[in-house]
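Minutes, project check-in
Item: structure for the 306-residue chain
Input as provided by the requester:
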Amino acid sequence: MKKIKIRRKKKNLGKRKRLKYIAILPSLITLMNGICGFSAIILASKGHGTALSPSALPGLNISFFAMAAYAIFLGMIADMLDGHVAKLSKSTSSFGAQLDSLCDVISFGIAPAFLMINVIEYEVQQSIFMLEYPRFSLFFIRIIYLVAIIYAISAIIRLARYNVEHKDASDSKFAGLPTPAAAGTIISLVVLWQDFLPRFPNWQWSQSFINSIEPVILWMLPIVTLVSGILMVSRIPYTHMMYRFLKGKKSFSVFLLALFALLLSIWSIQLVMFLGFFGYAIFGIIRWMHRLIKKPKKTAVLEPVP
């Protein structure tokens, strides 16, 4: 009898736990994040072409690259909302956490890397210098692919490490640059290039400014992608912005700052994306270096000689 009971216990331990119930609304919002990431990949594959403007909005003229970047940005909004909806409905679960990480891999790991590759490839094909030196062009494209792979792998490792180390989703700090912020640094450059600069008036000084800044953005894009990947797997502490500025009661100056950011977003969302994501990434590095410099050194305590 004892042997039979032991065998039954072993069989019960070997059985997998079946998922019976899931939270509908938070899961749908999380899946919207994944859909946005997949849509960004499709849009990025269409190239530099311009999307068809609807007749109701004839002034809307935006490239597929910029649309892909905006799709990733919409995925960030969905990623921000799903956790709050789950907490409000008291339906947080392990299934939701795993689903969120899988969607984050698509939207903030694969999609930004794929967008960067397509943007650089298009510009290389249009460059006269690259056409004159095909060997250098091939070598440059290989480096771009390597950078994209490093970024994607870093995002996967970052998310896996976060799931293991952070059991509480309300932590006020992150170890390493969060994946949405890393993706934001990439897409903000694409949006600045593809949707902000073309909106400048057709003046002589503005055209010379655009012609001088476009090559800078082109060379910055792979460098920013590589640095963002390294920052994701680093141990540099980054503040959770939602819990730092929006949770609880804040001072009146914080309210004015938030109001100014909102008004600036209405005027130019492209500029706010660039300043916000780059400012967040750079501020974390500066604060970490400042703490390392100001960290008090341990002095050895000398024992008195008897």
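Outcome recorded: Residues 23-49+60-294 form one domain.
No further action items on this chain.
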